[in-house]
Amino acid sequence: MRKLLLLLLFTVVTTMVPAQKYVGGDISMLTKYEDAGVIYKDKNGNAVQPLPFFKGQGLNAMRVRLFVDPSQDNDKAVCQDLEYVKALGKRIKDQGMAFMLDFHYSDTWADPGKQWTPDAWKTLSDAELYEKIYEYSKDCLQQLKDAGATPDFIQTGNEISYGMLWGIKGTTANRCYTNSSDANWTRFFNLLKKAGQACREECPNAKIIIHSERTPKPSVLTDFFDRMKNAEIDYDIIGLSYYPEHHGNLATLETALTSLENKNYGKDIMIVETGYSYAWSIGGEYDYTATYPYTEEGQRQFTADLIAKLNGHSSVKGLFWWWPEDNGNKGVTNSWWNAALYNHSTGQPYAAFYELKNFNGGSAGMQSVRSADNKDNVWYTLDGRKLNGTPQTKGIYIKNNQKIIVR
Fold first, then answer.
1. Are strands 316-322 and 207-212 parallel, antiparallel or unpaired?
2. What is the pTM of this model?
3. How many CA atoms lie within 13 A of 80 on its CB side?
4. CB 282 within 8 A of CB 338
5. What b/e string do you get for 371-401 counting C-beta neighbours within 10 Å, with b at 16 or more?
6. What is the spatial distance between Cα 164 and Cα 158, in angstroms, rounded to a whole number?
7. What is the pLDDT of residues 26-55, one digit of tens each?
8. Is-contact 77 333, C-beta < 8 A?
């Protein structure tokens, strides 16, 4: 009877634990802003330390990009070499947040139209390139681990809808369109397999993300992930970019999510990049201002509606705002980001910033509980909210990283 009771209690606990969700942003420029003396504030104008403040507002994960040799690019925002990422990654982990590493496998921005091979790799044959991406990924991950910055999520490429490592700047020979040669796709798959192998060997607990931005073209999107399945690419999460100005309205996003879910790939989905302007266009083709004006309130309402849409899909486990930390130029970059979450004049967050936590039900979730210094008489609810003392009502709680039933 006692064993049966314990089994029933275990079943209750496991079925009541909410699925882990992650919300945060790509904060790859944070260190540069801090070094330039940028002051981050809360909504009342009080100066704050950014990472503890982010966590205190319910954010539990952060993303950082990594270039092979960013010194080859003149763009000031292309500065994230391995030493930079190790330091920022450790700070993220020290806050008890999940850390997403975004391998660009390039010396510069990698996106659907630019997947240039790093300068130091440009003379390698395909066979040599397969080994290079394996060795490079493995070495980076080992160094990150040694620095206390073990990634929890790893993107093996950034917006790789059309392949990656095409060759020197300007070449198109190795692109992977739907009607590209089988050889191009095989080359791409071999690169992904070697990158994934390095991830599994060095960070076996990390989740691998395959990232596409073909959100407005569901047939192209599902063709891409059909090919991943048929090639037996080892990964865990479908990562998507979604910027309304480039990708269309929320109904378009809904179609993309539903199309992926109907395919039954067995993968979680994350929006690893999103953003919407508070003042000016970000240069896309779709005008959404009749619904969401370029104002602080328009940005907030878009964020709230996006989150409501995503929370209607149980497969969606992550939401990351791109470059939310842009907080006044001060010579840090060549330009500013019109879809940041900080007012460049006041240093205070826009209202949309405070909406993000609602993706996670208003809390930092179970990840923060597992990572927190949860000792002595510190109790948490299952959704990650810290209690002031011992629970006064019946239920299931977390203490010392264990689930405890209070009767």
1. unpaired
2. 0.86
3. 25
4. yes
5. bbebeeeebbebbbbeeeeeeeeeebbbbee
6. 9
7. 999 999 999 999 999 999 999 999 999 999
8. yes
Q: Tell me the C-alpha distance between 201 and 146, whole Å.
A: 15
| Distant-in-sequence, close-in-space partners of 364: CB < 8 Å, separation ≥ 6 | 55, 58, 59, 60, 357, 384
Name the nearest CA neighbour of 63 among 125, 189, 152, 140. 152
How do residues 45-103 score in pLDDT, each as one tens digit? 999 999 999 999 999 999 999 999 999 999 999 999 999 999 999 999 999 999 999 99
Which three-class secondary structure string do you get for 330-352?
CCCCCCCCCCCCECCCCCCECHH
- Cα Rg, the chain, nearest whole Å: 22
What 3-state DSSP class applies to 270?
Answer: strand
Amino acid letter, 45: G
Token duo for residue 16 = 């009541």
Cα separation, 322 vs 41, in Å, equals: 19
DSSP tag of 239: E
Instruction: Of 223, 256, 227, 252, give the one whose Cα is nearest residue 239.
Output: 256
Strand partners, 404: 397
Nearest CA to 62 among 33, 85, 36?
85
63-100 in b/e burial notation, b at 16+ Cβ within 10 A? bbbbbbbbebeeeebbbbebebbbebbbbbbebbbbbb
Rounded Cα gap, residues 256 and 260, in angstroms: 6
Instruction: Tell whether the torsion through CA atoms of 127, 129, 133 and 139 is positive or negative.
Output: positive
Task: Determine contact, residues 200/233, Cβ cutoff 8 Å.
Answer: no
Question: How far is it, in rounded angstroms, from Cα 315 to Cα 331?
Answer: 40
Structure tokens at 28: 């790859």
